[in-house]
Amino acid sequence: MTHMQEEPMAPDYREQAAEWCFRLADRPLSRDEREAYEQWLLADPRHRAAFDEMVAVWQNTDAIAEMPGFLALRAKALNAMDDGRGGRRTGRARDFWQRTLAVAAVLALMIASSLWYLADRPDLYTTGVGERRTVHLADGSKISLDASSRVAVSYSDGARRIVLDQGRAKFDVARDSLRPFTVRAGERTVVATGTAFSVELLHDEMRVLLYEGRVEVIDSPSDTTTAAESGNAPLRNADRVDHLMPGQALVADLSSSATRVVAAEPERSLSWEAGRLDFVDEPLSSAVERVNRYTGTPIVLGDAAVGRYRVNGVFDAGDASSFVTGVTSLFPISARYGEDQVILTSYADTSSPNDSHQK
To answer: By C-alpha distance, which of 101, 121, 104 is closest to 60?
Structure first.
């Protein structure tokens, strides 16, 4: 009687994430491994999220190394790895499956031993220079991160809290009237339940743009704000509350309590999601800040006058050289290229720095 050999089950993406975590921690990857790793990350949005979770666990195990019982758990984990590596091997697929299961066992022990330490820590999502990323949250909400951005996500039974540390993010919020969705940036908090909006931090400004639904922006967060985030109190005691309607943007000065609500162009404002930077009468200082999210050679303003020129036009994100060529051809500005930066400096000219130019 002929017996057909059963094909091994494909490893779960979480186990694959564990395998890559161990490989990267153990030694530098070869060129072929690096390509395989990058292809794996791009194959499914869940892969990067799972890998980030594994890295967070891995990085935090040092903090619990002296816990009673941790050494015993570590010994068990090593035995699991040995069991996975040992024994009779019937092929590369089975060998990979055994090693993956061993890695999963190791991480399960790590997670079990460090659960108390990680329970209250937010999930961090970041993008590097020139990188954009979409994060799907457990409740169905979605975060679209611009380049060079970072958010921290903390979910509980009564609240959905996000902190934007830097950069820009767009939030598509799943409706849940019992759990307000809040985004804190600087000294202000945006409160929503089910809507779509973006929040951006610049050097001297915080901007909120509403695409659909309704949001409230609270100034000077206090105990009232904390209570509102948990859904347990109204906002009537907040220092200031601004209500936005679709197509409106709030621009807040980070150095003061000054805010203004202005009309916005939602479609143009989302051009960064398609890899373009669309400026409408934008101060050169903030335009440069956005361009710098996409270039490894940052642009630096050599004097205050440069930053006051107003920029209009659409630029390809990541093409900093075209941006520099454009502004130096339109304004009395010179560009000096160094090894690690480009310095823009103004020179005498009869044109006013408040003039608007179209690229």
So the answer is: 121
Cα–Cα distance measured from residue 320 to residue 291, given in angstroms and rounded to the nearest whole number:
7
**Do 344 and 287 form a contact (C-beta atoms < 8 A)?**
no
Which has more confidence, 303 or 99?
A: 303
Asked whether 322 and 315 are in contact (CB, 8 A), the reply is: yes
Q: Are 345 and 333 in contact (CB under 8 A)?
A: yes
In 10 A of CB 344, how many CB atoms?
A: 22
pLDDT (tens digit per residue) in 234-262: 444 446 788 899 999 999 988 877 889 99
Rounded distance between C-alpha atoms, residue 132 and residue 153, angstroms: 17
Give bridge partners of residue 150 from the DSSP assignment: 126, 166
Which helix (H) or strand (E) segment holds residue 256: the answer is: none
81: nearest Cα among 58, 62, 98, 93 = 98
- As to burial, measured by CB atoms within 10 angstroms (0-12 exposed, 13-18 middle, 19+ buried), residue 305 is middle
End-to-end alpha carbon distance in the chain = 78
The C-alpha angle 63, 69, 70, rounded to 5 degrees, equals: 35
Confidence of residue 21 (pLDDT cuts 50, 70, 90): confident
> Helix, strand, or coil here: 110?
helix
CB-based contacts of 279: which residues, under 8 Å, 6+ apart?
A: 287, 311, 312, 313, 314, 315
- 259: exposed, middle or buried (C-beta count within 10 Å: 0-12, 13-18, 19+)? middle
Pseudo-torsion of CA 101, 106, 109, 112, nearest 10°?
Answer: -80
Report all structural domains of the chain as residue ranges with CATH numbers, in order of start.
Answer: 13-118 (no CATH), 123-267 (2.60.120.1440), 275-358 (3.55.50.30)
Q: What is the largest CA-CA distance in the chain?
A: 95
Are the C-beta atoms of residues 77 and 105 closer than 8 Å to each other? Answer: yes
Whether residue 67 is predicted with pLDDT greater than 70 in this model: the reply is no
Rounded average pLDDT over 83-100? 51
CB 106 within 8 A of CB 80: yes
User: Which pair of structure tokens corresponds to residue 278?
Assistant: 């669309």
What pairs with residue 135 in β-bridges?
A: 143
Q: What are the backbone angles phi and psi of residue 298, rounded to the nearest 5°?
A: -65, 155
